[in-house]
Amino acid sequence: MPGRVHTLPVVFSPAGHPHRGLGGPAMPGQGLPLRVGTLLTGLLECLGFAGVLFGWTSLVFVFKTEGYFEELCAPVGNATEPEGCKAQEEKFSLIFTLASFMNNFMTFPTGYIFDRFKTTVARLIAIFLYTTATLTIAFTSAESALLLFLAMPMLTVGGILFLLTNLQVGNLFGKHRSTIITLYNGAFDSSSAVFLIIKLLYERGISLKASFIFLSACSVLHIGRTFLLMPRGHIPHPLPPNYSYGLCSGQESREEKMVELEKLNVRSKEFSSTSTEKTLGPEEKQATRSFWSFAFTRRFAWHLVWLSVIQLWHYFFIGTLNSLLTNLAGGDLKQVSTYTNAFAITQFFGVLCAPWNGLLMDQLKQKYQKKAEKNGSSTSMVALCSTVPSLALTSLLCLGFALCASVPVLPLQYATFILQVISRSFLYGGNAAFLTLAFPSEHFGKLYGLVMALSALVSLLQFPLFTLIKGPLLSHSFYVNVGLVLVTLLTLVHPFLVYRECQH
Q: Where are the domains positioned within the chain?
């Protein structure tokens, strides 16, 4: 989220090169149960809390029923009519625009907080932001609805920090590290179903206040997990021998820290010595280039276009879905509720869709590497070539989802929902994988933060587009959708240019 955070190569691989296996012997005795407990509770945390913002459509339905911003509606006519509450729709769209902007833009500063102050501090900040946000929403009413402008961005930033601190759990499982990271990102996508559960409970008599007080009370679990099942610092990769954390460690000993530092120093010296021995190699020369020399390349620029356009489509669609369904259903609240539930249910399956993209790239990478060994090709270029099918497939999925969303036929939106969740689950994993493979690892964190921040600025366009539809276009989104579809075709240029680069 959506925004998702994939900063592990910088934080946990300081030597800047891949590692194999677990990096140390398995922990005896209580080690495995602790790791499995950390894994499962982390998955639950991402699934239940991290990316709930993207279930916004379900929550808007409840807010409208409660009369939030209803005073902005025209006094004449039914408030459920498609044309009845433009100002109300604009308020909800603006809240989502700001929150989704924070979801991306705060990736870089939250990553810095995690790097600088480590796991415990980052998680305590996350718990504070998340709990404050849920309590604020719990005690808001139609009269104090403006507090949502504060609560939703706080909820988003807290969720990002939950995801960020949990991604390092993959380091505990060695060769399964990538699978766990992908799974956690998929859980982030699927957590949007939480707001669907709140909506369904609301329709059965459970108040919005009670639901959000329950979410606030879950901070006790977050705090317990922070001190019992998570490290104080970072989980290293590869793991040093007899690595302990949480319940097993009690307190981190200075000796263990010194051992880890010594290993990092030895590893960095080995890496620097091997790189100086290979000074004639083009890949090593490329690695010495500055961050800005990569940020201003054509490869990075087209990747930014690819990410920004597809992400804008997803944010625009989620932020305006309630309005779209209201228009297509002719103001029938029952139909709007049914389709809102269907959308939220499809979002839950993001956790199942996300790993397929990584599996596709892993298989292609292995295939191309075997050819490279025979032909003597560059290994970095081989890795880059493995991203082409993923980039192209993500663009085509977005194009299909955009075309379905542009056709004003209500039953067709079921297909839109399916294509949207697959496209979104491919987007963020593909983004992180491309940056990892296309640029030196020492610049990954900075390039990732830059591309997410710039794409966040582009995502702000969703609000003026919504205002254009509700204003001059009189709620007819056809022309805006056609324009966005044409812009989406530009995203196919990126995989084409990467393919040409591979061919040369």
A: 27-74+85-239, 293-504
What was the pLDDT predicted at 116?
Answer: 82
- Residue 23 CA, chain-centre distance (Å), reads 28
Of 222 and 441, the one with more pLDDT: 222
Cβ neighbours of residue 22 closer than 8 Å, sequence gap 6 or more = 173, 174, 175, 238, 239
Catalogue the long-range contacts made by 67-70 (C-beta closer than 8 Å, 24 or more residues apart): 67/142, 68/142, 68/145, 68/148, 69/142, 69/145, 70/142
- Confidence class for position 471, pLDDT limits 50, 70, 90: confident
List, in sequence order, the alpha helices (H) in 168-252: 177-190, 193-203, 208-217, 219-228
Query: Minimal CA–CA distance to 37: which of 172, 219, 184?
Result: 172
pLDDT recorded at residue 9: 43
Which CATH fold topology does 293-504 show?
Growth Hormone; Chain: A; (1.20.1250)
Measured distance CA(120)–CA(227) in Å, rounded: 8
DSSP at 49: I
Whole-angstrom distance, CA of residue 188 vs CA of residue 165: 13
The more confident residue out of 77 and 40 is 40
Distance from C-alpha of 238 to C-alpha of 265, rounded to nearest angstrom: 14
CATH number of 27-74+85-239: 1.20.1250.20
Rounded Cα distance between 364 and 373, Å, is 14
Q: Please tell me if the domain spanning 27-74+85-239 has the same topology as the one spanning 293-504.
A: yes
Specify the 3-state DSSP secondary structure of 491: helix
Give the DSSP letter string of 287-308. Answer: HTS-HHHHHTSHHHHHHHHHHH
Torsion of CA 153, 159, 163, 165, to 10 degrees: 100
Q: Cα 231 vs. chain centroid, distance in angstroms? A: 23
